Amino acid sequence: MDVLNHLHPAIVHFPIALLLVGSVVALAHLYHWTAGELRPVAWFMLAVGWFGGIAAVLSGLVAQSGLPPDAPYRDVINWHIGTGLGQLVLFWFLLYRGWIYRTTRARTARAVRGRHNVDLLDDPSARMWVTVVLLAGILLIVATGWNGGILVYQWGVNVAGV
Predict the structure, then answer these.
(1) What pLDDT shows up at residue 35?
(2) Mean pLDDT confidence for 79-99
(3) Rounded-to-integer distance, Cα 83 and Cα 123, Å
(4) Cβ neighbours of residue 144 under 8 Å, at least 6 residues apart?
(5) Domains of the chain: which residue ranges?
(6) Could you tell me if 51 and 88 are in contact, meaning their C-beta atoms sit under 8 angstroms apart?
(7) For the stretch 22-41, what's the b/e string if a residue is b when 16 or more beta carbons lie within 10 angstroms of its beta carbon?
(8) Residue 78: CB partners within 8 Å, gap ≥ 6?
(9) What is the pLDDT averaged over residues 80-86?
(10) Residue-wise DSSP of 7-65
(11) Cα angle, residue 29 at apex, residues 18 and 90 outer, rounded to 5°
């Protein structure tokens, strides 16, 4: 069981980095901050980061299961878990909408309306809500990491020897 307690901190940094950088790359593509083709890079990083987030959440839930239920840091853990799950839901929604956008049925419907965008990140009518979702995702990542840092550095949760 001790190995499982150390699995969460070993896993968690990959989805943090992938989701943060993927969000920034998607925003860069949305607002044409560069001439490069960033769309596939953004989707790849967001997808891999989301799957890594599942592993991070599962390993975190296993690691916290051995902690005392009446611990003084339980509120911080609950916020940490809540924001972590919120990230998964938010980025799942974005990935799902991006996938739906690329289906043949959706392409046909857009073509009938005279819009021939092939990707959600290229659709000007989706720019605002996609931006809001990406920025909210970034804020959730920061909040989750902040609470995780409080758990480790202030309370010493699941730190070897404590």
Answers:
(1) 61
(2) 97
(3) 29
(4) 80, 83, 84, 87
(5) 2-154
(6) no
(7) bbbbbbebbeeeeeeebbeb
(8) none
(9) 97
(10) HHHHHTHHHHHHHHHHHHHHHHHHTT-SSS--HHHHHHHHHHHHHHHHHHHHHHHHHHT
(11) 50
